[in-house]
Amino acid sequence: MEPMVRFQGVTKRFGYLTVLKELDLDVAPNEKVAIIGPSGSGKSTLLRVLMTLEPIQEGVIYVDGQPLTHMERNGKLVPADERHLRSVRGKIGMVFQNFNLFPHMTALENCMEAPVRVLGLSKAEAEARAAELLKMVGLDDKMDARPSRLSGGQQQRVAIARALAMRPKVMLFDEVTSALDPELVGEVLNVIRKLGEEHNLTMLMVTHQMGFAREFADRVCFFYDGRIAEQGPPEEFFSNPQNERTRAFLSAVLEAH
Amino acid sequence: MNIQQGTVIFLLSFTAGLAVASFAGFRDFIPGLLEGAWVTIQITVMAAGVAVAAAMVAGLARLSSIKPIRWIATVYVEIFRGTSALVQLFWLYFVLPHFGISLSATTVAVLGLGLNVGAYGSEVVRSCIQAVPKGQYEAAIALNMSRSLMMRRIIIPQAVVAMLPPWGNLFIELLKATALVSLITITDLTFRAYQLNQVTLRTVEIFTLVLIVYLALSLLITIGMRALERRFGADLGRIR
Amino acid sequence: MLFDWGFVLEILPTLAQAAVITIEATVVSFVLALVLGLVFALARMSARPYVSLPVGAFVEFIRSTPVLIQIFFLYFVFPQFGVVIPALVAGVMALGLHYSTYCSEVYRAGLENVPRGQWEAATALNLGPMATYRDIILPQAIPPMVPALGNYLVGLFKETPLLSAIAVLELMQTAKIIGSETFRYLEPITLVGVFFLVMSLASAALIRRVEAWLRHRRD
């Protein structure tokens, strides 16, 4: 089966620092992948590069069978232009650690903006879709609220609804609970769990929530120094880590709980 | 009560005292000065329009990735900030006719002052756009927005709110600068004051009164800008 | 309409003389602004409201109103009391007064930026007011003030053309006279503009250098 997301020999450098090292990764359709690892290992960069927030220096990324970072010209792969980028990028949605809601719009307007302006939906259609999504994340009573009036957990749920409004095939979650007070983490994780169960979505999550990763993910990847050091289904991964560094990381993290 | 309010009250009472002391004479000033004040207001408003437009264009141009555009904007800003408003007004008024361009004094005033304040304003525009958090850009990209859509609907609206206080100060500087147009024959408040002084020689009363009028106008600007800040800033959670 | 370089050479000496007047006016006004600004700043920080409030009101009044009017005021008011002063003196006084209000703000902000703890430490060490200011407060307050004051100096320099309104023979007035006598305004006024632009860019670079030097010195 054709992978939904494929990283092929992807290298990403910031100046002299190589953050992703010839990364190869295949994600199957509807697969839920949790990405864990120490700070600076490159986990967030992996998501950011997939979302085209950063350019890559080497390698190719494929989404849903099509090259994302490159395009075909005369049978060869050349770096993608803006138009091609935008045509493939629409299949990916992202939720950020700091929510990044648009402060000058209400929750509803946040969710309507891109469907109207980018997808060309009519205002009525976009509004109906947005309302439905906000209801799904449990915020139908906060549709007309501005972000400044919402708690962190509520803002993050709006952010999820906003990303879903574009009907992506792949959803990226970049440490989406790390900026939340502990008591608000649960409501966001519940929404993500619901998403996984009720929708056909391929999901990549960078997270520190080991318990959630264990219970929710189909596969866990341990990222270290720009590469995947170890990966596997959660039961095996957590109970029997093969790699030395994986063990060290897991014991350090689990001790903290 | 802030300093400016206190100032106005203090000076109004001073003037009231003067008025009582020289009642009849005082009335003679008022019509001429009011006409002058009206001209000042009109020039200020028109120049403000030019200034905002020039600042938006130049500010965005300075952020452009295209070098020639950045360069032209920088030249504009450096020239208009590096020379004084009066030199610019005189240049437009005395020198342009040599090139066959004969502008009316009012056009010179509005254009000259507008471009002058616009140059300072472009810095405000530029820095406020750059101050919008990077996360907003990233969210827009994640939603697959084009660059122009992102600027138009997400970035610039947020930048505009941040710009309001500095623009308030710039508009007050603009108001003060309109006094210069009296030197290119425009019959504004300063011109009227000069005339009246030549005729009546009541220097202290006339000029003090005129200064108070300018102060009052600048207070109007401050109040107006504060109202705008409250209206738009509250939405973003930045309530004063 | 070509630039007549021959004409430029002709008028250069006259303009150079006028430039001297411009620079003199700038320097004297600025010194006045620095001194008067300090007086105002200290008065505004006074613990006695009958001193600080009127001075504060006066400073705000002057700062928020056009300097041109203030120039006219001083120029015309003295003769009415029988005192005859040259236009240059009246102009310099007005510019100095106007810019002293800006300087007083810089002083106030600069002094307020010195952390409270410094004042308290000086008190704890039983330092008298003179020593406190001289050795503790001013050395910390002054460096950040320098760029701001430098910018006002440049601003003041660029406002000297206003003195042409009371016929002071500085650069702008001289340029206008040349223009009205020869009907060629292009060269004189452009030269004046270029002169101001060059001086302004040079001072801006100089001020940046000073800023960097000051920052370097602190660390």
Summarize the structure.
The complex is a heterotrimer of chains A (257), B (240) and C (219). Chain B has 240 residues and is mainly alpha-helical. Chain B contains 9 helices and no strands.
Give a verbal description of the structure.
The complex is a heterotrimer of chains A (257), B (240) and C (219). Helix content of chain A is 38%, strand content 26%. Chain A is α/β, with parallel strands linked by helices. Chain A folds into 2 domains: 175 residues, 3-Layer(aba) Sandwich (Rossmann fold), CATH 3.40.50; 66 residues, no CATH class. A 6-stranded mixed sheet of chain A has the order 8-9-10-3-11-12, with helices on both faces. A 4-stranded antiparallel sheet of chain A has the order 2-1-4-5, with helices on one face. Chain A has a two-stranded antiparallel ribbon with strand order 6-7. Chain B has one domain: MetI-like fold. In chain B, α1 packs antiparallel against α9, α3 packs across α5 and α5 crosses α7. Chain C has 219 residues and is mostly helical. Chain C has a single domain, classed as MetI-like fold. Chain C is 82% helix and 0% strand. In chain C, α1 packs across α4, α2 packs across α4 and α4 crosses α6. Chain C is flat. Chains B and C meet through α1, α3, α4, α7 and α8 of B and α2, α3, α7 and α8 of C.
**What fold name stands as the CATH topology of the largest domain in chain A?**
Rossmann fold
Outline type of chain A: globular
Report on the biggest sheet of chain B. Answer: none
- Name of the CATH homologous superfamily of the largest domain in chain A: P-loop containing nucleotide triphosphate hydrolases
Backbone shape of chain B: flat
Please tally the β strands of chain A and state the result. 12
CATH architecture of the largest domain in chain A: 3-Layer(aba) Sandwich
Number of strands of chain B: 0
CA distance, first residue to last residue of chain A: 39 Å
Determine the strand fraction of chain A and express it as a percent band: 25-35%
Largest sheet of chain A: 6 strands, mixed
Structural class of chain B: mainly alpha
Q: Helix and strand succession of chain A?
A: EEEHEEEEHEHHHEHEHEEHH
Order of strands across the biggest sheet of chain A? 8-9-10-3-11-12
In CATH, what is the class of the largest domain in chain A?
Answer: Alpha Beta
Number of domain modules of chain A: 2
